[in-house]
Amino acid sequence: MLRRIVNWLLLAPIAILAVVLAVANREPVTLSLDPFARGAAAFSFSVPLFAVVILSMILGVAIGGATVWWKQGRYRKRCRTAEHDLAAARNEIDRLRADLGRAEAAPGNALALMNRPAA
Questions:
Q1: Which residues sit opposite 29 in a β-bridge?
Q2: Are 27 and 50 in contact (CB under 8 A)?
Q3: In 3D, which of 12, 11, 18, 15 has the Cα closest to residue 53?
Q4: Angle at 43 (CA atoms; ends 31, 18), nearest 5 degrees
């Protein structure tokens, strides 16, 4: 519950700020993708300024998230290997316990004699 309140306290001002930015910057700007032609670029179009700002922030978050995901790949691989090793160790423990149970149940076995209470 506290986490939801904190999220609202942080995200509500950011959302309000984004709406204010969008309302205040509705004028179209020319976005050119051709760095060499200044006047009539082949790859240019007019978009509202707030769209450029918001889309660049979204693109930055996406690129940052992809970079972090890529950098943490070795840790995810190490975790998968550790989980596989843990599962193998648990299977080995279960097998050894089953073997020990069969050895204790067999009459005349040395282990059965060792586990017998003293007379």
A1: 47
A2: no
A3: 18
A4: 25
pLDDT of residue 22: 81
- Per residue, the 3-state secondary structure of 26-69, as one string, reads CCEEEEECCCCCCCCCCCEEEEEHHHHHHHHHHHHHHHHHHHHH
The SS3 call for residue 108 is coil
What are the tens digits of pLDDT across the range 25-75? 888 888 887 777 766 667 788 888 888 888 888 999 999 999 999 999 999
- CA 113 remoteness from chain centre: 55
Per the DSSP assignment, residues forming a β-bridge with 45 are 31
pLDDT digits (tens, 9 = 90+) for 62-102: 999 999 999 999 999 999 999 999 999 999 999 999 988 88
- Rounded CA gap, 54 and 51, in Å? 5
Per DSSP, what are the bridge partners of residue 47?
A: 29
Task: Give the residues across from 30 on adjacent strands.
Answer: 46
